Model the fold of this input.
Amino acid sequence: MCSKSFSFCPAFSRAVKGLPAFTWGGSPDQNLILLDGTPLYYVNHLGGFFSVFNADAISNVSLMKGGYPARYGGRLSSVIDIRMREGNMKKLHGQGAIGLVATRLSLEGPIIKDRTSFIFSARRTFLDLIMRPVSKMASDNQGSFGYYFYDLNGKINHIISPKNRLYLSFYSGDDRSITRIREKYQTSSNVENESLGRFKLAWGNVLTSLRWNHVFNEKLFGNFTANYTRYRLLIESRQETKTHNADGTTAQSSLFGYNSGIEDYNAKADMEWYPSPGHSVRFGGNAIRHTFRPGITAIRSSDTDAQSSDTTFGASNIGAVETAAYLEDDWEIAKHLKANFGLHFSTFFVNGKQYSSLQPRIAARYLFPKDYSLKASYATMQQYIHLLTNSDAGLPTDLWVPATGLVKPQWSQQWVLGAAKSFADNVYEASVETYYKDMRGLIEYKEGTSFFGNTADWQQSVETGGRGTSYGLELLLQKKTGRLNGWVGYTWSRTYRQFENLNFGREYPFKYDRRHDTGIAATYRINDRISISGDWVYGTGNATTLGVARYPVIADRPANNWPGSREWQYFNQAHVYEGRNGFRMRAYHRLDLGISFTKQKRWGERTWNLGLYNAYNRQNPYFYFLDYDKGRRRLKQFSLFPVIPSFSYNFKF
Done:
């Protein structure tokens, strides 16, 4: 677990940069990510270049990768519990940054001194202001491309009485990409055509949470929460064409739209009781109303002759109710032995079908002399939602779908064993953990199938009943204090999937099977004003499916459409695959460097940050494709980010 500050949390640091280092063999949907107790369904900006979490608004982070307590449920792999700052009750403070990539501002202070406080934080990238004019010049004013993202965080903290507090928090964030292409061309000497195309891609989260904290007595208190969260994806393509001729001007327009998402309303109660020092009991429950929007495609067209068409197809919305109750006992049994016992019970109601699950959890830690510790845990988890991944799209076009009568819930059990030792008065800490996870009820698209633009029921497009196995070893060495601090982490892991009708029923590597995962981060404070930092990551390339050979497919048909005559015709090509995910992309590695200059001012503190992202310009693969080069077909890769310099002016007052 990492808490107090996520600036020094190795696994979380890698996770928010888009690396699956914190999943222990799971997929993105199997990680429960909470912001003030409310789930977030998508947590990356710009393909993982940024996370949705603005550091200026965050108070602390708890990261649990195995055997997490019974109060958490609904996911198989890990929990990241993030809490926002509550605002200063005494005086107004602010901080922010003006940078090349993104600009941010945070303000906090009292609304009613010593009784009500607020914090508000905003962040936006202005890449679109740079990219649009550059793309216009590059296309001779025939097209433009713009992309930006933003985040808004806010929280109000109000003291009703010494035993009652209210917290109201919200988050809103979006990524938006817009491409425009304008063309003029002539089809004959007196006919001129003008077309304007517009492509929009947008995705993002909205959440809000209201929590009442009540102290019943010195041993019992509770939190009662109502929250709302929504994730949505929108793809829209518009085309307008005008034709000018001697008879006048005619116009045609068309629209292709696609949207999907998930929406939750949640109410929960959490109680905590302290019967004695070193002993706490938690209990409570919650109910969630899910609305799944697996994907709707709309196609519209019209012209000046008043002819038009309007077609909408796709899956209908699906409503479901998920409930849960838990009991958790955290007990310091002896001076050196502490254990956490728990039961999590959940139910899921969807389309007249009911599922239920009782999930036992246990975790224990024993402290040996000379700062050694040993810990072990066992947990079972059940998950009622699935994420269908269009792995070849390279875009956030994944679909959230529920367990149904045809698609069963996901289930897992996990064993973890670890040891840790502190050195030199807790300046250094070394740890090792090993884990084994068994998963059931996984789903995957059928061969050659995706949901994008599909008119069939999504339940008919997936393979069900999949099994998964993950196991690995994780090593971590940290230096926590001093002028030089940082960490070195290494994970060796394997994760596989198996479906009866995929890969001939044989086990195959999961997309996120990353055999080796290494991270090194360090910060050195030269003096009170100057510090330098570096961060290097390495990971085995993702597993993907590529053809190793191809051959022409030959069909016979009537020659010249005359019955009784036949001819052979080459009309297509088939690819030969050695196995699902049998090809490895190139390894991912990257070095980031930074230096900061801090100076105290009369009004507060200012810091100049200079940095290099991907300092040695590693061309990491984002996806592969086949193309022709000098008449020969070759495998090529597409990479996202080259070396990127950055600077920002940071301030606090």
